[in-house]
Amino acid sequence: MKILVTGGAGFIGSNVVDGYINNGYDVVIVDNLSTGNIKNINPKAKFYLLDVRSKELEKIFEIERPDIVNHHAAQMSVPASVSDPANDADINIRGLINILNCAVEVNVKKTIFISSGGAVYGESANIPTPETQMPIPLSPYAITKFTSELYLNYYLHQFGLHYTVLRYSNIFGPRQVPHAEAGVVAIFMSLLKEGKLPIIFHFPDKPDGMTRDYCYVKDVVSANIKATATGDNKVINIGSSTEVSTGELYRTILSACRKKGIALDNKFDSPNKGNARPGDLRRSCIDNTFAKTQLGWTPKFDLNTGITETLETYL
Description:
By secondary structure, the chain is an alpha/beta fold.
């Protein structure tokens, strides 16, 4: 089976590509390297340097004729979407439509689309949040992700193109960088390695920071592999179902750094504080019960294990 992975040179996408190849799939990567890194590309995959909005994408689909498309390419920064909503929509919505049109032309069996459980639900009072919760997107990024889900449903009913939506929580792990996709785990690890004090952004009534659901990238890889064969036409949360404050995450990373021999004195016990940024949510944690029934998937790595493994790649 051949799978075309967009964004396959990025942090999550490249890990997913490795997982597919390790499980015997034939993989094609499309990535414009705007945030991805050519060093992440698996040598066993075929690589095309191309933006997902390009008309040249049609030729790639005609040549490769993939069975499944796994769409990871995206503008992924909430702050960037707030500062430039038009660019966010152009990449995330127009790019998806281009992919779906190409997929229809060559009879792709299914599209696996990466959405955001950490963003689309907005400020939900139902924590952990299940898929039955109506999304209330509060940032342009979240709006484009939910809009994309609606387009997938349209292409199913209009053209018979099946899909599986994976709504990710906050993903971390090896290859995540402290810029571009702006993962807080990568930011904290990089700063601590350099002996710099990180900032914990927070709301006035939440001094320990916002809460998030952190899921290790290896668990995400297994979810994508399972989604190739099941979960058709479903929207599925992929997360840990565990709510963790930014402060708790920081302390976990700080402890792991010290255990690895990184010299960090007592001043690092009190990180800097900053006001919440535009688009920040107070709480976000998603319910993974549906993933258990639809994909047979549950996360295998707890936060401490994931942080420890990830830190090895920063040393």
